[in-house]
Amino acid sequence: MIELINVRKVFNQGRPNEFVAVNGVSLDLNSHRVVILKGPSGSGKTTLLSMIGCMARPTSGRIKLMEREVTSLPERFLTEIRQKTFGFIFQNFNLIKGITVLENVMLPAYPSGESQSSLKRRAMNLLDLFELSKKAFSKAEWLSGGEAQRTAIARALINNPSIIIADEPTGNLDSVLSGQFMEIVRKLKADRKTVLIASHDPLVYESDVVERVIHVRDGKIVPM
Amino acid sequence: MTFHPATLALHVSSILITFMILYSTYYGIRILRRWDIESGSELQLALERRTYLISTLLAYTFGLQLFSLFLFIFTADTLHTLFVGAMCAAGSLFVNGYGYPALILKIITFLLAGLWLILNYADNKGYNYPLIKKKYFFLIIMTPFILAEMVLQWNYFLRLRPDVITSCCGSLFSTGSGTMTSEIVSLPTLPMMVLFYFAFAFTIASGIYFYLKNRRRRPEPHYSRQAKRWDSGAGRLCRKFVHGSTSSPRTDDDPLEINYSAVRPEPVEGQTAIYDTVSGRGGYLFAFLSAAAFLVSILSILSFISLYYYELPTHHCPFCILQKEYGYIGYPLYLSLLAGTVSGMGVGILMPFRKIESLSEGIPSLQKRLALVSSILFALFAFLVTWRMVFSDFIL
């Protein structure tokens, strides 16, 4: 369960360009669900996801993860939670250029201190799962859009997180690849993951794998 | 004198330290008044972010404070050539009425700063800022000492006059002059030796006893055999926080058999902390003995230890051993003594907090290390003193 209690996020507070990205959002998200945050650009979806994923702190309000409050945690505790609990998929994938697909997938697991051989084995298993074994030693910049997408998903799964956060994952993909992505989400759901997706793509929020759609506009939840 | 590099360094560091202390005290007062970890208000979150910054800056500030004691003594010793009658820091400090009070305050603030650093380190081990109010309350108590030290130090250096004929250790630390130091150096030597070695024996034994009695014991595992212990303090917290993992990323060969129960805070009935919280036996005693050993050591240096270094029955100066002709032996002596005292007293200052849930593993572990470090440092001090006494040509 993820619980947001009156969360507010203000950028440039006190300055002339002050902007309220999230304005008093209270939300309960059950585990093992696929939830979509739907809304236009600038509605606060990404900010909400970043706060849920412990990548940003709210200006006020509290966020609880499985009944434990995370917003007050010092940074050194948050890094561990980010690593172990969340897997992130970004709109532009944010693969590291210059290194291979395999190294990109392994990267988030390096701080765990796991042995290289064990980590490599797990990463290769993930690449097998997403039919990327043959691309394991290719540089990330050589990948097609679909391959990059699947690499990003594999990277998000390397630490066995329970929650996947995807921010506009189909933003740079065509319809076919978007459909493939939602099939991967279906599989993640079958594995009892919690998947949070911010998207304004109808192919995403109208998919039958989605169990809940939350409408966000101007930093607030809009009841539908 | 005012523009001596070491003097300037002391002035600049005291300004920096004072500024940081005042800035931190301001926020400390706000924290004491407004801190509420349960609240999600904007002020509370701002205080949480601010305290992270302040405690980091204060850690460096107090590190500088610790160093400034030795820099002050070194500076006073270096300046002795400028004053008629001064042969070491004893004479330099006696040039005006601010020298010795500044030194005493610096020693006090050294001990306080060390204890604050230990408290801060312990607080950082907890995920819910368990010692934050106590830490800042302690800081507020320290503030007048640090301010007074800065004032005295500034006055000392600014009021140094080269035309003053000062007295030095020969008269300041001689018998029969009727001063307090005179009374100390007049103490009978043999009883002081016995007191010194008994004090150190009891202190070191107490430290070793505390270390051995507070060894880690492993609880019965209440979770899956696949669950892993993470080595870092944050990792241990996170394991507790996300207790109930049924698989580990380190051994799971099937990447989709995911640890989706990773954040379930399963209560583990009957599981106690890894360290026995009822124990902590000997912590207060060790802290008290550490403080006592410090005082006994200072008296002993004045009474008989210094004699063996100078090989002169009338030379009781605690400062001349800092000079080159004695191999700067004073620095390792005083450093080991002060650091051992701070570590030992740190064990005691943490005792009341052993049962705080978020610190139930961190504090016993920290206390163990402090006890070990303190015992080693006291042993080092005793060894240096004994070595000199045994191999010196001087016979008392």
Would you write up a description of this structure?
The complex is a heterodimer of chains A (224) and B (396). Chain A is of the alpha/beta class and 224 residues long. Chain A has one domain: P-loop containing nucleotide triphosphate hydrolases (Rossmann fold). In chain A, the strands form 2 sheets. In chain A, strands 6-7-8-3-9-10 form a 6-stranded mixed β-sheet, sandwiched between helices. In chain A, strands 2-1-4-5 form a 4-stranded antiparallel β-sheet, with helices on one face. In chain A, β7, α6 and β8 form a beta-alpha-beta unit. The radius of gyration of chain A is 17 Å and the shape is globular. With 396 residues, chain B is mostly helical. Chain B is built from 12 helices and no strands. Chain B is flat and about 65 Å long. The relative contact order of chain B is 0.12. At the A-B interface, β1, β4, α2 and α4 of A face α2 and α9 of B.
Q: What is the C-alpha radius of gyration of chain B, as a whole number of Å?
A: 25 Å
List the uncertain runs of chain A: none
Amount of helix of chain B: 55-70%
Mean pLDDT over the residues of chain B: 83
The CA-CA distance between the termini of chain B, in Å, is 39 Å
Main-sheet strand order of chain A equals: 6-7-8-3-9-10
Overall tally of structural domains of chain B: 3
Task: Assign an overall shape of chain A.
Answer: globular
* Whole-number count of domains of chain A: 1
Overall average residue pLDDT of chain A: 91
Main beta-sheet strand count, sense and barrel state of chain A: 6 strands, mixed
Q: How many β-strands of chain B, per DSSP? A: 0
Number of strands of chain A: 10
DSSP helix count of chain A?
Answer: 7
Order of helices and strands of chain A: EEEHEEHEHHHEHEHEE
Q: Oligomerization state of this entry?
A: heterodimer
